[in-house]
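Journal club side-thread
Mid-discussion, someone asked how the predicted structure for our own chain would compare to the paper's figures. Pasting it here so we can look after the session.
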Amino acid sequence: MNITGLDVSPISLPLLLLNLALGVLVSTAIAWYYVRFGRALSNRNKFAPILPVLTLITLLVITVVKSSLALSLGLVGALSIVRFRTAIKDPEDLIYLFFAISIGLGLGADQRVPTIVASAVIFLFLIVRERFHLVQSKSHNLYLNIETSTPDAAEDLFSDTNQLLTQHLTSLDLQRLDTREGIMQLSYHISVDDPDRLVSIMDVLNKRLPNSSITIVDQSNVLGR
């Protein structure tokens, strides 16, 4: 077909509708997974609805321009004068944007089977990664912060505290030690398999260091982790 001097191949409407339907299904699944399991600090509920729309627009553009070399060159020229100034601050947002675009590209090029298979593999990887993350979270990697006065020698108090913690913990890693004006601050990275053991550790520390501030922080709840 020739339109205004351009050789344009006809677009099959049934295939276009099929690609659009597949694009809606896959991109909606991406949006749901992003809202449910994403860790981005942005508003995921507001960002996720953009993904299916982005997939469908990409699919439409690729479907149209693939029918004509002239149209594809025109698209390159049009995009060269467009400036996108919206900053993507979280890398995870960028990953899901590329995921949505790649699905639109694949379906728009009529590569339905490779696109669906590749999307399924990526989803499987994301699910395995999330399950592995949950297993890691169950190990309860924590930070133990102790601030106490040092009426006695700081070296003796530090040694006694280390020995006391070693008796109740299987993993103990000193991260920070500060001493100033009779105050000693200790920060440890600890691993605890049984959450109930934290109660006994707190009791022991309170008895050994009665005038102290003792804090246990779950690092998985720290902003940005």
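Post-session note: Confidence is low (pLDDT under 50) at residues 1-5, 221-225.
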